[in-house]
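Section 3.1: Structural characterization of target chains.
Under the original work plan, the team committed to producing a structural model for every single-chain target entering the pipeline before any wet-lab resources were allocated. The record below documents one such target. The sequence was received from the expression subgroup and is listed exactly as submitted; it comprises 351 residues.
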Amino acid sequence: MLTLGHGPVTTSPVTVAAGKPSGLPDADEQQPLLGHSPPVSSAAQTVAIIACITWTTLISSFLNGMVTVALPMIAKDLGLDPSLVLWIVTADSSNIRSPTSICLSILSVTLMLAFVLWVGRQERRGSPALIPNSLWSNKIFASVCINVFLMWGALNGFLQIMNFFCQEVRGLSAIETALRFLPTAISGLVANIAIGLIVHRVRADWIVIATTATSCAAPLLMALADPSQSYWSSVFLGNLLSPIGADGLFTIANLLVTSVFPENTQALAGGVYNTVAQIGRSLIVAVVALVAENVTAHSAVEDKKSPDALMEGYRAAFWFMFASSAASLFISFWGLQKIGKVGRENSKSVT
């Protein structure tokens, strides 16, 4: 018997028999040392993680929405032309043919091609490459990046044009417009939670296809809508359905990055994926604004700032966003057909 500071401790005898000490558990029966036990993720922890991510997304969307709704008011207070709110080139489509725009466009394309050639050379030499070209050889990853480029851009473009539709065509105030965007936040919140809870039970490609097809209906409804229709028949349904595709794709894509790449490449792939999403948002919003402005400028209505003339441009923008969402749906059928369930431990369903 040994005596320690907190009382006696009785030790059991240990004898050696057949080359192994008796009284000790077998190697495969030994418990892990304190502080080195493998982490166990309970259902409560999973729900808490999903809730935190969802809440962060909701706050970000809320802040972006505040800026979006306030854009027309900011433009009026500063005396800006309404077309300057989205992209400066839309103030006059002829600006894109100016020497400055042409030179900058040529320089941008040249630098992009030079970067692709340079990283390809670095990869062939076995030297470090910032974004290896081999990253795009993975069909699933390339499809996901194209999808998020199109869907994230279409969502942001839809919210921007819907905001102008409510204020400039329907004549609503900023507060009234903001209240009409509440279904967007609610459906996005529900979609994030629901997809997070079923992602390990349902095939990932089915989730992406179903959510993308649902969001395709939002710009289609607004492209066919009559401005005199009630809020519930067009604007409500459009705002309700618009975020589901982007939220579903974003959740699935983050899990796919960890499934199709080794650990030493996952961070790079995740960074490239998020960068593509931001580029898509910026580029497609600018193109949407350009489409709307051009159609309005060539409208048969004399007063180009009248609701009728503006609606022609907004309708064309909604058709463009529908085409973008439909292209994403086609790519989902083509590029994600071989993936199965993701988000499960030791899952090998992604090929």
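Residues 1-41, 83-91 have pLDDT under 50 and may be disordered.
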